[in-house]
Amino acid sequence: MLVLHHCHESRSMRSLWLLNELGLDFDLRIYPFGPELRTPEYLAKHPLGRVPCLEHDGRILFETGAITEYLCETFVQEAAHLFRAPGDPERAEWLQWLHFAETVAVHGASLTQQHVVLFEDSMRSPVIMKLERRRLEKALEVLDNPLAGREYLLKTGFSAVDTNVGYSVHIARFFTPLEAFPNLLAYYERLASRPAFLASLPQSPSIYQKPFYDLPEQQT
Ligand SMILES: N[C@@H](CCC(=O)N[C@@H](CS)C(=O)NCC(=O)O)C(=O)O
Q1: Is the CB of 214 under 6 A from ligand 1?
Q2: Rounded to whole angstroms, how far apart are CA atoms 209 and 107?
């Protein structure tokens, strides 16, 4: 039995998208951000009260990168096209992009905190907003280059790393226009048309209530 603990458009969207790509049966438990993630029952599953958290046959696992590897290694048949196992010529690249997804996501998370979670202007720091947007853009440049002439990050096609990186790009586009990165924009549009991606989007409004969060006026 598989159970995924999830908040809409959070990093657990990666695991949800991957489970949808795998075509597995699973139970989805959806939480709003807030106290429901801090109950003793949930903290016993994830010690920081964060998502994602995956339960499988009595085992509890957190961290999206680990969940991605675990699902690919456990559901070998379903993941045949999504995994690059040790020994595969694309193994090193697969691992690199899987974990680079977090390098991108930390800037998206920081910008989410500044623009969305800290709702009073007095709580926000224009300096951090500007710095984090620049750092996000530098990380997106790193993705744009290898995507020239490629549909997905790996030459042989779509893999589980695209669900991890794709989520980070999905969040990045709330804070920087992807038009500056033409290969990345085409990649995101390709990913966003996949049925498994669409099935991992919220049915109800998420924490992102605007399509774009620009820098405060005086900082642009
Ligand atoms: N590196 C972790 C990050 C997990 C994480 O920080 N999740 C955030 C959502 S994106 C969360 O659960 N935040 C809720 C909270 O801190 O209350 C992963 O990739 O799984």
Answers
A1: no
A2: 19
